[in-house]
């Protein structure tokens, strides 16, 4: 089990952990009904914090920020000499937590994505984990919620008996959601991005050899060039540039902490 603490990558604190530690921390918090904010960040996620100081403060309030992409793990190793042997990929961590939740009898809730994706996801998860207790699943409204609607979401999740909520709203909306709900829900809130689509089978994952070499971005770019070209062709070179500048101690982004003054976004 590996937990070497948190280290700054472009001002965003990344947790140098492995899957075993991540699963144990999340399951323990679920059993104790303790709040725990978790996300898995690839390059795009780190760059949202790099480019937006307000969002960086939100991310640095999280309990676990795992290195979702290989380039984020590489940055930990290059800059800080961590020698982390593997990344902690959100979709894989999702399955490992669901497996443990099924064994422990811990009820789970899913928030986000589309209804048809959730239906497919739950159908496949019930086959994969027959003992899994799913006590709720609601799609995104793809808009901001009113204060009354937000309270209704809190009440639905609380009243469901859930002990873990998986959030799939896309980056950075899902991280904002977790940040804003973390003090309202005493349970782990896991921002897991494309895990809903991957495990529902609506979006294909890159083959293992591409994942190992940090080429998932290229695989997804080929799939959705119109939507993703700016994300990858602009952000990836910027990420590498500033990572090397930090490694050489030429440029270092400050690790900003939340002030409590972050604007309420109420994504739903």
In total, how many beta strands? 8
Structural class: alpha/beta
Low confidence ranges: none
Mean pLDDT over all positions:
93
Strand content: 15-25%
Let me know the largest β-sheet.
6 strands, parallel
How many helices? The count is 12
What is the alpha-carbon Rg in Å?
18 Å
Please give the order of strands in the largest beta sheet.
4-3-8-7-5-6
Q: What sort of overall outline do the alpha carbons produce when their principal axes are compared?
A: globular
What order do the SSEs take from the amino end to the carboxyl end, as H and E? EEHEHHEHHEHEHEHEHHHH
User: Helix proportion of residues, in percent?
Assistant: 40-55%
Cα end-to-end separation: 35 Å
InterPro entries: WecG_TagA_CpsF
Protein name: WecB/TagA/CpsF family glycosyltransferase
Keywords: Glycosyltransferase, Transferase
Organism: Phormidium pseudopriestleyi FRX01
Topology:
Elements: E1 3-9, E2 12-17, H1 19-32, E3 36-41, H2 43-51, H3 53-59, E4 64-67, H4 70-80, H5 90-104, E5 108-112, H6 115-128, E6 134-138, H7 147-160, E7 164-168, H8 173-181, E8 188-191, H9 195-200, H10 208-212, H11 216-223, H12 225-247
Parallel strand pairs: 3-4, 3-8, 5-6, 5-7, 7-8
Antiparallel strand pairs: 1-2
Helix pairs in contact: 1-5, 2-3, 2-12, 4-12, 11-12
Pfam family, one: Glyco_tran_WecG
Organism: Phormidium pseudopriestleyi FRX01
Protein name: WecB/TagA/CpsF family glycosyltransferase
């Amino acid at each position: 089990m590996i937990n070497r603490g948190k280290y700054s990558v472009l001002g965003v604190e990344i947790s140098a952990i492995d899957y075993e530690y991540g699963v144990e921390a999340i399951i323990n918090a679920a059993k104790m009904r303790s709040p725990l904010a978790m996300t898995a960040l690839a390059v795009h996620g780190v760059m949202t914090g790099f480019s937006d100081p307000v969002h960086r403060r939100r991310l640095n309030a999280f309990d676990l920020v795992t290195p979702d992409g290989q380039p984020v793990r590489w940055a930990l190793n290059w800059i800080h000499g961590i020698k982390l042997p593997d990344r902690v990929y959100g979709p894989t961590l999702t399955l490992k937590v669901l497996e443990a939740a099924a064994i422990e009898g811990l009820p789970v809730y899913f928030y986000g994505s589309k209804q048809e994706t959730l239906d497919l996801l739950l159908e496949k998860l019930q086959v994969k984990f027959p003992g899994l207790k799913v006590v709720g699943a609601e799609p995104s409204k793809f808009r901001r919620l009113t204060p009354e609607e937000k309270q209704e979401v809190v009440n639905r999740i609380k009243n469901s008996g859930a002990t873990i909520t998986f959030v799939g709203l896309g980056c950075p909306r899902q991280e904002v959601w977790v940040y804003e709900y973390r003090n309202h829900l005493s349970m782990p809130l896991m921002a897991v991005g494309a895990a809903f689509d991957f495990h529902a089978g609506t979006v294909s994952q890159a083959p293992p050899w591409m994942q190992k070499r940090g080429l998932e971005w290229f695989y997804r770019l080929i799939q959705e060039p119109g939507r993703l070209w700016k994300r990858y062709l602009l952000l990836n070179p910027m990420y590498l540039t500033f990572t090397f500048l930090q490694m050489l101690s030429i440029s270092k982004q400050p690790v900003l902490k939340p002030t409590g003054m972050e604007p309420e976004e109420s994504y739903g």
